Amino acid sequence: MVIKVAVTGALGRMGSRIIKTIQQHPDLKLVAAIEVPNHEKRGEDVGKLLGIGEIGVILETADRLEDILKKSKPDVLVDFTAPEATVNAVKVAASQGINLVIGTTGFTEEQRKEIEDTIKKHRVAAVISQNYAVGVNIFFKVLEFLARKLRDYDIEIVEMHHRYKRDAPSGTALRAAEIIRDNLDRDVSIIYGRAGIIGERKKDEICIHAIRGGDVVGEHKVIFAGDGERLEVTHRASSRQAFVNGVILAVKFVSGKRGGIYDTFDVLGLKD
Ligand SMILES: NC(=O)C1=CN([C@@H]2O[C@H](COP(=O)(O)OP(=O)(O)OC[C@H]3O[C@@H](n4cnc5c(N)ncnc54)[C@H](OP(=O)(O)O)[C@@H]3O)[C@@H](O)[C@H]2O)C=CC1
Ligand SMILES: O=C(O)C1=N[C@H](C(=O)O)C[C@H](O)C1
């Protein structure tokens, strides 16, 4: 069976790669590609815009999302855009019974809740993950283990991304901090950077440090610092294809599912 896929953020760093990869999977068919309202390339063939030759799908814009989805009838909508754009895409797609793969990061608590409530209300299925790379999900599992074993160590997270990234800290760093917090048997708060006369480090905090620069695809390091030793775990993404490969698995996983909110642990069979 062929899975029909729509992609929002079609010309973005992730969206464009997702579309190119869909073209390499005979069991996936791109049926709609959507960009920001009033995009100057609206109406042009998306394959041509991406330098892979005509594919027979024209670039549409988000102001017409409802009609586009009604016409193209995708099984799954893949969204890597920006927080408000994702909230809107989820509302429109879910109301038409379309399942979702969501990769956008940087949501407020309210936006996250709105997305989850919408998915539940319309009983669609969605995969939501801050990081679709297989290696990062294994890194998360390693963090669960380390947090249980090194519970008295001082824990710090450092992430680095390209200069264009809009949100900080990264969704992955936030998820890593939550995983560690949930696996420690003591209360900790998550804080963001330090400056000034901060005094001695507090035991009950995990600090996230966000670095931005150049074309770095994505790096995450977690440091467990003890007395006389330090354990560091690092994941480095050198190509966005690492995320895209996970997205393709998520599309195949969520297609045809009846309802529910899943993550990449579900997709990759990593749930305990
Ligand atoms: N979960 C994961 O594994 C990963 C998540 N991400 C996240 O994905 C998101 C996108 O990242 P990236 O591809 O690098 O960003 P880009 O800015 O390259 O791409 C986003 C695209 O979405 C477009 N867009 C914005 N609003 C809308 C809208 N309303 N409808 C349709 N398209 C819209 C943007 O257009 P314009 O530029 O004109 O605004 C842009 O083309 C970020 O939140 C990032 O953190 C990234 C990599 C991996
Ligand atoms: O914006 C990016 O590029 C990335 N965003 C995700 C995040 O915020 O964690 C995942 C990846 O690190 C790349």
Automatic annotation (TrEMBL):
<keyword id="KW-0457">Lysine biosynthesis</keyword>
<dbReference type="GO" id="GO:0050661">
    <property type="term" value="F:NADP binding"/>
</dbReference>
<dbReference type="InterPro" id="IPR000846">
    <property type="entry name" value="DapB_N"/>
</dbReference>
<comment type="pathway">
    <text>Amino-acid biosynthesis; L-lysine biosynthesis via DAP pathway; (S)-tetrahydrodipicolinate from L-aspartate: step 4/4.</text>
</comment>
<comment type="similarity">
    <text>Belongs to the DapB family.</text>
</comment>
<comment type="function">
    <text>Catalyzes the conversion of 4-hydroxy-tetrahydrodipicolinate (HTPA) to tetrahydrodipicolinate.</text>
</comment>
<dbReference type="InterPro" id="IPR023940">
    <property type="entry name" value="DHDPR_bac"/>
</dbReference>
<keyword id="KW-0220">Diaminopimelate biosynthesis</keyword>
<feature type="binding site">
    <location>
        <begin position="103"/>
        <end position="105"/>
    </location>
    <ligand>
        <name>NAD(+)</name>
    </ligand>
</feature>
<keyword id="KW-0028">Amino-acid biosynthesis</keyword>
<keyword id="KW-0963">Cytoplasm</keyword>
<keyword id="KW-0520">NAD</keyword>
<feature type="domain" description="Dihydrodipicolinate reductase C-terminal">
    <location>
        <begin position="135"/>
        <end position="268"/>
    </location>
</feature>
<feature type="binding site">
    <location>
        <begin position="9"/>
        <end position="14"/>
    </location>
    <ligand>
        <name>NAD(+)</name>
    </ligand>
</feature>
<dbReference type="Pfam" id="PF01113">
    <property type="entry name" value="DapB_N"/>
</dbReference>
<dbReference type="GO" id="GO:0009089">
    <property type="term" value="P:lysine biosynthetic process via diaminopimelate"/>
</dbReference>
<dbReference type="GO" id="GO:0016726">
    <property type="term" value="F:oxidoreductase activity, acting on CH or CH2 groups, NAD or NADP as acceptor"/>
</dbReference>
<dbReference type="InterPro" id="IPR022663">
    <property type="entry name" value="DapB_C"/>
</dbReference>
<comment type="subunit">
    <text>Homotetramer.</text>
</comment>
<feature type="binding site">
    <location>
        <begin position="129"/>
        <end position="132"/>
    </location>
    <ligand>
        <name>NAD(+)</name>
    </ligand>
</feature>
<feature type="binding site">
    <location>
        <position position="35"/>
    </location>
    <ligand>
        <name>NAD(+)</name>
    </ligand>
</feature>
<dbReference type="GO" id="GO:0051287">
    <property type="term" value="F:NAD binding"/>
</dbReference>
<feature type="binding site">
    <location>
        <position position="162"/>
    </location>
    <ligand>
        <name>(S)-2,3,4,5-tetrahydrodipicolinate</name>
    </ligand>
</feature>
<protein>
    <recommendedName>
        <fullName>4-hydroxy-tetrahydrodipicolinate reductase</fullName>
        <ecNumber>1.17.1.8</ecNumber>
    </recommendedName>
</protein>
<dbReference type="InterPro" id="IPR036291">
    <property type="entry name" value="NAD(P)-bd_dom_sf"/>
</dbReference>
<dbReference type="Pfam" id="PF05173">
    <property type="entry name" value="DapB_C"/>
</dbReference>
<feature type="domain" description="Dihydrodipicolinate reductase N-terminal">
    <location>
        <begin position="3"/>
        <end position="132"/>
    </location>
</feature>
<dbReference type="GO" id="GO:0008839">
    <property type="term" value="F:4-hydroxy-tetrahydrodipicolinate reductase"/>
</dbReference>
<keyword id="KW-0560">Oxidoreductase</keyword>
<dbReference type="GO" id="GO:0019877">
    <property type="term" value="P:diaminopimelate biosynthetic process"/>
</dbReference>
<dbReference type="InterPro" id="IPR022664">
    <property type="entry name" value="DapB_N_CS"/>
</dbReference>
<feature type="binding site">
    <location>
        <begin position="171"/>
        <end position="172"/>
    </location>
    <ligand>
        <name>(S)-2,3,4,5-tetrahydrodipicolinate</name>
    </ligand>
</feature>
<feature type="active site" description="Proton donor/acceptor">
    <location>
        <position position="161"/>
    </location>
</feature>
<feature type="active site" description="Proton donor">
    <location>
        <position position="165"/>
    </location>
</feature>
<keyword id="KW-0521">NADP</keyword>
<dbReference type="GO" id="GO:0005737">
    <property type="term" value="C:cytoplasm"/>
</dbReference>
